[in-house]
Amino acid sequence: AEPLSRDLHCLASAIYFEARGETLAGQLAVGQVVVNRSQSGRFPQDYCGVVAQPGQFSFVSRGSIPAAPQGSAAWQRATAIAR
User: Model's pTM, two decimal places?
Assistant: First the structure.
């Protein structure tokens, strides 16, 4: 598979860290929240800006998104959902 763009990587990270233990519906819901916020005009317009915004996602610390284990099945699923 081709590498993820920066924005899709941020979207996949949100799906992975917020919902990796959830059903597909739960993971899709987290992804949709990020997409909806980016389109709302009230949040940053890019996925990374939405995800890194203070107080929005519990896994973000000081605007930094941690690295996910990219070889894991959960990460592969998150990237597929993000795409």
Answer: 0.94
